[in-house]
Amino acid sequence: ADGKKVNVTYRIQNDNRLAYSVQFEGYNRDLLNNAQLKWNMNFLRTERNLSEQRKISTICWEETEDGLDYLSESSDDDDNPEESVNWVAYKQSYFSAILHPNKPFKKINGAFAVSNFGENSPENATHIKKMESTLTPEFDGTNSASFTWYFGPNSHDQLAAFDANYEDILNYGWGLLRWINVYVVHPIFNMFTNAGIGTGIAILLLTLIFKLLLLPVQWKMFSSSAKMRILK
């Protein structure tokens, strides 16, 4: 009515991303300053071991100053951003959906929530978790807000190629352990798979390599333990 119009545009890209924009025509700017984007997703079950999938599925987001933040992976959780938000990721075990605005989401009225389905809920046997976000977009001078939406695998190299810190959502451990996994384990694994070795064999070879590297330490521990048992 009154010449008002909402134009929603989607454009498929060739990198697992979707270009997405919303333009409002004939709307008051003050009204748009309070407009919100609400994103709800109930992740479908994709693995036989549903409990394991639930342990590593959650919402992650990157704040402009403090970097990565996320909700609990093991229980129901909710939070509000303390700063503007660069992007929001809905992560499960092998795939993620990442919404990235051209201009960061404003922190005002922003909210994130993740929850498990109740035992008596029909979704409890078919879905992983329920994820909800309320986001406040920043509109440009033409009353438009633009985004890219990634739908794809949790591949470190693929996520890192976007140069937006998407790879931070992958849980490689903390501190030194993360550095070892990212810069030692991951490259060796890629070397095996790029050589045509199957994933299962590559994991087996990795296990053998690290067992051999740790053998001197483990042998010392085993020897000390054996001596203690003899003394006892």
- Tell me the major beta sheet: 7 strands, antiparallel
The portion of residues assigned to helices is: 25-40%
Q: Give start-end ranges of low-pLDDT stretches.
A: none
**What is the assembly state of the chains in this entry?**
single chain
Order the strands across the largest sheet as they lie in space.
1-2-11-8-7-4-5
Topology:
Layout: E1 5-12, E2 17-25, H1 29-32, E3 37-44, H2 50-55, E4 58-63, E5 67-70, E6 77-79, E7 85-91, E8 95-101, E9 106-115, E10 127-136, E11 144-153, H3 156-160, H4 175-194, H5 199-231
Antiparallel strand pairs: 1-2, 2-11, 3-10, 4-5, 4-7, 6-9, 7-8, 8-11, 9-10
Structure keywords:
35% strand, 232 residues, elongated, 7-stranded antiparallel beta sheet, 5 helices
Protein described:
With 232 residues, the chain is an alpha+beta fold. The chain has helices at 29-32, 50-55, 156-160, 175-194, 199-231; strands at residues 5-12, 17-25, 37-44, 58-63, 67-70, 77-79, 85-91, 95-101, 106-115, 127-136, 144-153. A seven-stranded antiparallel β-sheet has the order 1-2-11-8-7-4-5, with no helix packed on it. Strands 3-10-9-6 form a four-stranded antiparallel β-sheet. The longest helix is centred in the last third of the chain and has 33 residues, at 199-231. The N and C termini lie far apart (88 Å).
Question: Could you give a quick summary of the protein structure above?
Answer:
The chain is α+β, with helices and mostly antiparallel strands and 232 residues long. 29% of the residues lie in helices and 35% in strands.
